Each structure stands twice: as structure tokens, then as C-alpha cells.
Amino acid sequence: MKLTKTKTFPYWKYIIVCLLFLVMLPLNAAGIVSGSTLLILGTVIFYAVVGVGMNILLGYSGLITLGGAGFMGLAAYLSGFCSTRLGLPFILCLVISIAVPTVIGLGIGVVSLRLEGFYLAIATLGIGEILRQVFVEFEPFTNGFSGMRAAYPKLFGIVLTREVTYAFYAIILLIVMILVHNIVNSATGRALLAMKGSESAAQAMGISLLKYKLIAFAISTVLTALGGVMYMHLIKYSYPTVWGLGMSLNFLSISVIGGMQTVLGAVLGALFVIAVPELVIKQLPVIGTLTGVAYVFNGLFIVLVLLFYSDGLIRIGSDVKKLVGKIRGKKNDIDQRSGT
Amino acid sequence: MTLTKEAVHKESPDLKEGVLLECRDISISFGGIRAVSDLTFDVRENEVYGIIGPNGAGKTTVFNIITQFYKADSGAVLFREANGNVIDLVSLKTPQVVRKGLVRSFQNIELIRDLSLADNLLVGAHIHFETSVFSQMLRLPAARREERVLREKAMQVLSFLGLTDRADQLAAGQPYGVLKKIELGRALLSDPRLIILDEPAAGLNDTETEDLTGLVHAIKKDYNCSILLIEHDMRFVMDICQRICAMSFGKKLAVGTPEEIRAHPAVQEAYLGEE
Amino acid sequence: MSNFIQILFSSLEIGSVYALAALGIIIIFRTSQLINFAQGSLGMFSAYIAAFFIQGGESSLEVQVMKHSTIIAVLVGMLAAFLMGVIIDFLVVRRAKKQTSPLALPIITLGIVMMLTGLAPIVFGGNPLAFPRFIENASVSILGVTIMVNSIVCIILGFMVLAAVFLFLQNTVWGLAVRTTASNETTARLMGVPTKIVTMVAWAVAAALGALSALILAPSTVVDIVMMDGVQLNAFIACVLGGFQTFYGPVIGAYILALTKNIFGFYISTTWGTAINYVLILIFIVIRPYGLFGKKTVKKV
What we know:
The structure holds three protein chains of three kinds.
Chain A: H1 12-22, H2 24-29, H3 35-60, H4 68-85, H5 90-111, H6 117-137, H7 139-142, E1 148-149, E2 154-155, E3 158-159, H8 162-184, H9 187-197, H10 199-204, H11 209-235, E4 237-238, H12 245-258, H13 265-280, H14 293-308, H15 314-328
Antiparallel strand pairs in A: 1-4, 2-3
Helix pairs in contact in A: 1-8, 3-8, 3-11, 3-12, 3-13, 4-5, 4-6, 4-11, 5-11, 8-11, 9-11, 12-13, 13-14
Chain B: H1 5-10, E1 19-30, E2 33-44, E3 48-52, H2 59-66, E4 74-80, E5 86-88, E6 102-104, H3 117-124, H4 133-138, H5 141-161, H6 176-188, E7 194-198, H7 206-222, E8 226-230, H8 234-240, E9 243-248, E10 251-256, H9 258-263, H10 265-272
Parallel strand pairs in B: 3-8, 3-9, 6-7, 7-8
Antiparallel strand pairs in B: 1-2, 1-4, 4-5, 9-10
Helix pairs in contact in B: 3-5, 3-6, 5-6
Chain C: H1 2-32, H2 39-60, H3 66-99, H4 104-124, E1 139-142, E2 145-148, H5 149-171, H6 173-183, H7 185-190, H8 195-217, H9 229-242, H10 248-267, H11 270-287
Antiparallel strand pairs in C: 1-2
């Protein structure tokens, strides 16, 4: 009997994306791609990591958070503190900076049993705001409005360069995508979708809502914190105002615009929300120089994309495939929507 | 909270020989309205048992009480597990019920639209997945093996339902009759001793209902379990059930074979009004 | 005692700012089933329009009619907001509701936020603008405490507008149409309620309320692109506190929120006062997950 889903190697698309990011390095060395562009793409990478976490939460589990920026900031400050003030090796900083926010994230998971929908959204928003206030006030730790500085990651005693850090981050993104892909296509992923689709049916099938909400928030917070650590060691500077509601809403946008029930969608969303304003719009002649233009166009694009592709930009991929199939005259039987 | 063998034997409630499920004097009220009053009935091994009654009689409420979606105000829901132990389901949380061998379907189809039909069935097999999230994340051999074995099982059920060609299609957009079958099939994946079906024939035409009748017979034979169902389609109920319990306003009117129920004066009055 | 009077009046004043914004949010939420993240930005943009209008007015009108100019400017701002609400509903929301997933809708309002935030400096220039009070340089003494007359005017204005909206909802046929649509849109449509007009008017009114909220706030700060950020946040929290199931819940929540914020701010500290406020509200909604006046909607299986 033929088994379903006998995909030989499902990770090609993630590898291709990683390679596309990596190919920017030789282009940068050759002077075709500028250093600031590289920095922006590096930013896209760690926003994509956070975006994958948001997809798990929003797209696969039906849970929402508007406090993501607070957790990302917490991880950033922790990592900065551990590496610069305490001089700890990068791996240890990473572990600490991820563990602490995740504990809080688990707490939110418990709370999410009681609160639903918008109530949960605003509750997490409140937590994010409280964290931001902490960043401002805890000056001995965070240096308040003066900001905290950090360096590129120090692995095995060597401080990396910007280019190596960028490559390192691209690899991290690849690993994250592969691991999350595995989760999403496993019994855990199905349980999360079941919980999102129908809490009653999920419970009737033996799925514990508490366990899976905790799993969803744990995975999402780990990835958000990881993104925070990556932020700190690429941007090398953090100050409190960054970690506000605006950033949390950016995460939401990245998730929804890219395709929230996919893994790859996060990369698309991050490219669109982060890279397009900086790399495309600001480069346009005349209008590119006006303050606020990037914002206007980005907003306009968001509205248009969601009006026409409410499932996210990732659907463009399936639309292109359908078009190609039609052009070639082949019949495309299998619905491309079954799992990316 | 699962009961240990010792605890069960200490306060072991009693079930007659051959009885699989017994609702004993269960009652529940919602805001002052008595939805179910002192209801007692039992379902035997390898039996198809039906509950009928006008709308509002409390049938789905009884199902929710049995499956621990509601907690009864009083009474016990005794169930005999595969290993012979008798437990009171009231002591369990909702997700624990299916692990004891009792699974339900829903009146409104509660399938997951974003999953394929095969994956929807695999949700039914959730309790058989024992590997941790980490194993699944790293696709360790144990996790891969488990997925393969249980996916085979899901394909077998799809074949049993005659839906193999739709295995990878999403549940969203499937015809109603297909969804009803999958809802039924999902219950089979958990290796149940008792399947509880809430209006399985609702919305089906005559041909589909005949199909369903054949399916229920086949399930009873091939899967060696009992079936407890609510239905409004009288022909279907009389065709398929060995015994029927008629309810009205939360109370038991009568229990008996289809013929006995059909001839029962109180049942006739509740359905048709006094002559 | 004098502290209490001070706190009371400033709470009532800032409370009316929050309440107007919160009412705007809940009206759109209940009639269009979406969270409008653009509430603050619409207010901000209208404030810019009003501020621009007044500046233009200053140059051509004499000083002694400035009082009228303020009121007219406010009306102009509210009218502009009203029109923007109509346009947004007509062009975007109506289309979006038919073909987008429910989660995409709030993100679309985020897109609108970005557009407004980007447009404001382009149209109005990058500098913050000033907006005058209704009544300048006048104060009264209440129980020994000096209160600005303008504050009293704003408080009364806030009450009047809120009362007007509630009277409209409760006592008019159109108000009934709004409440019916809020309760169940499909049924309302089946019963002949022109739900499309209702949602459009809802957007327009909500935007106008946001404009008034911004303009009551404006004199005590400046008109710039971030002026309504704090207000919007507090308006959302007021909705959570009051519950999303009623129209009056968020309004009452807004006043309570303003009061507790000021009390904590005064007796503890201004910075930590806000944080403590949030913590207490978070604790509150965990205990009462549907807000002060909300009810759990049980889904029957």
C-alpha cells in the first residue's frame, strides 16, 4: 500500500534560502553588495527566526502575543550583559539569554488557558510594556537610555567579524527552519493545529490543552529570545525604546504577510517588512528621500498584499506553480497547499 | 490523574458481567434548569445502543457528561477498561478519557480544516504517539518509526472507509458525506472499546445513510467495540441498534429493543402527543 | 483632600481622552469584528489637520475670535476623521472582510497606521505643532484647589459626547441597528438591517471620537506622530478591563484606568506607577478573564 507523504528530502527550499543569503558574502567582498545592505539582510535573518516562532504560535497554535519585543529585548540585554560585563563565552550567554525569557514565556502559556483572543493579546502587550519599562529603569543592568553595547559573538575564544557573524546567522536560520519543519510535520504539529482548529475535538482525541499551549509558547519564546541574542551581537547596541509595541506589531506583520501557517513564510515576511523599506523604497529617486515615504509605501503594500493574498506571500509560490502548470499544459492534481 | 490498580481495587465500583458502560443516576443542572435527571442506563460489550428523544431532551448533554466535557452534578459514569478494571470516568479530565478506550465524534463536524484527511485521522491516533517533542524535532529513529507505523494504520482506516484516493487532500472543501466518514474514522484510530457518535446520520441522504449503516455494522465486527449513538433518523436507529433508550426532558422514558420502544406508549406520547 | 481633588480632576480629564478612544475601538470591534490598531493614528492625523487649520486661521482671523477658531478647528478635525473613516471602510475594510482571514484584518489596520504615520510628516512637515485649549488662562478654585476652566470644559465635553453616543445607541432606530449588527451581523442583515451602512457609520463615528480624544489631549502636549501612542495603549487596556461584550464597559474601564494610574503615579512614582497599574490589571483579567462587564460565550459542542 502506498504511503502518503513519501517526500525524499523536504529541506531543499530551506537550504536554497540559506545559500541565497550566503551568496551575498562574496558579492559583498566583490563590492557589488554594500556593507549596510549586508547588515540589513542580517537583520532580516534574525527577524525571520523570530517570525518562525510567531508562526508556530499564531499560525499553528492559534495563540497570540503582542509582547514579543519585550522578550527579544530581555534576551538581547542578558546576552549583552553576560558577554561584555561578565565575559562569559557566547554559548553560555546564549543559554542564559534564552532560558530566562522562556521561563516567563511558559508562565504566559499557563495564563493563555484562561485568556483568549484579544484578551490574551492585550495581556501580552501589557507584559511587553512592563518589560520595556524595566529596560529603562534598571540602569545598573541595562544602562537605561544610554543603551548597552556588545560585540560580535566570541566563539572558542575568537571574536568573529561581521561577515562571519552573518554567515553564522544564516546557518542558525537554516537549522531553526529544519527543526521547526520537523516539529510541524510531526504528531506535535498536528496536535497544535488540532488545538487551534477545535479545542473540543483536540481534547476528545487526548490532546492536553495545557501541555500544547506550553509547548507553543516555549518554542515561540525560545526563538524570539534567540533572535534577541542575534540582534545584540550583530547590531551591537541596544536601547529601551526599540523594544516597544511597534516591534511586536512588526513580528505580527511578518507572520501574517509571509504566510503564518508555514515555516518559510517567516523569511518572506521579514524580507518584506524589514528589507523592502530600506533596500527598495529608500533607494527610489526623489520620493525615496522624503522622511516617512518608506513607511507610507510599506503600509500601502501591507494593505494590498493582505487584500489579495490574505494567506500570505507564500501563496505566490503556489500561484506561480499553477501558472507554470497551465502554461505547460500539465494538470496539477495535488493541492499545493498541503503543508510547506 | 490516573487511578492506580491498587486504588481501583480498593474502591472498585461494580459493573455487571458483560456491561461496558453504565451511567448511574447522573444529573446535571444549568442555571436552575434540570437538563438531565437521575438517568441510568448501560451499554453492553459488542452492542450498538441508541439514544433517541426530541430536541432538548438532553441527549448531547448526556454525551458530554460521559466524555467529561461536562461534570455531572451527581451520579457515576462507570466504564470497564481493556484490562478489566472498572473506573468512574467522572474522576478524569477530558483529554484522559480517550486513553481509557472511550472516544467520541461531534454533532458539528470538528475536523481540522488545515490538515489533510490522513492527518486528521492521525490526530485520532494521538494517544499512541509516545516519543517526546525533542525526538520528533530531531526526527530520531524512534519518532520516525512511530510515525510510519501509525500512518500505515491511518491508511488502513482510509481503505476501510473507501477514501484512500483522498488521503492527501485537505479537509477543507471536502463533501459533507466524506467529512462525516472521516469524523467516524478518526475515532477508530484510538483503538476504542466504545465509540460515541453524536448524530452520525445528520445531513446525509438515503444512499449515504445506507452506506453509514453498512459502515457501523463493519466497525462492530472488525473493530470489536460497542457503539453508543444519538440519532433523529428513526429508520437508521431501528435498523442498527440492538437496544434503545428513549429520553424526554432529561429523564429516561423507556429502554428496550427497537420493537419494544416503537410500541411503548410513553414514547409514542412524547413523540406524537396523546391520542 | 486637596491632593484628592487634584487627582480626581486630572483623572477625569485624561479619563475622557481614554474613554473616547476606547469607545471608538469598541464600536469598530463590535460592528466589524476587528481590532482597529489605527485608532490612535486616525486621531493623530486629524489633530494635525485641526492644528494646521488653526494656524491658517490665526493668520487671517483676529485674536479675539480665537476661541471660536478652536472649536471650529476641533469640528474640522472631527469631520476630517469622519470622512477618513468612511473612506477606510469603503475602500479597504469592506473588501477585506469578504476575502481575507480574520487575522489579516488587524494587520491591514497596521498598514493604515504606517501610511498615516508616514504621510503626516510629508504633508504637515516634520515639526511638532501646537494646539490651543478651548479656554486659555482661566482657572477656578474648587475646595481650595486651582483647577483650569479648560479641564472642566473638557470633562463635561467628554461626558456629553459619550452620553450622546449612548443615548443614540439606546433610544434611536439607527442605534438599534448598530446594536443588532454588533450582536450578530448575519442575522441583522437577514432581518433587513443595512449592515454595510452601519459598519461604515461605525468607522466614521469611531474615527471622529478618536479625533476628539486627540484634540482634548493635544493642548497639554504637542501634535506629533507619537502623540496618541500612549492613549491607544491605554484605550486597549480599558477595553480589556471593561470587557469586549458591551459598549459601556470600555468607557467605564477607561475612567477607572485613568484614576488608578494617577493614584499610583502620585503616591508611588510616575514611572513605576504605570507598570504597577498594568500588573494589577493583568492580575485582574486572569481572575476575571472577560473583563468587568464581560460574559463568557459558551460554544455548544
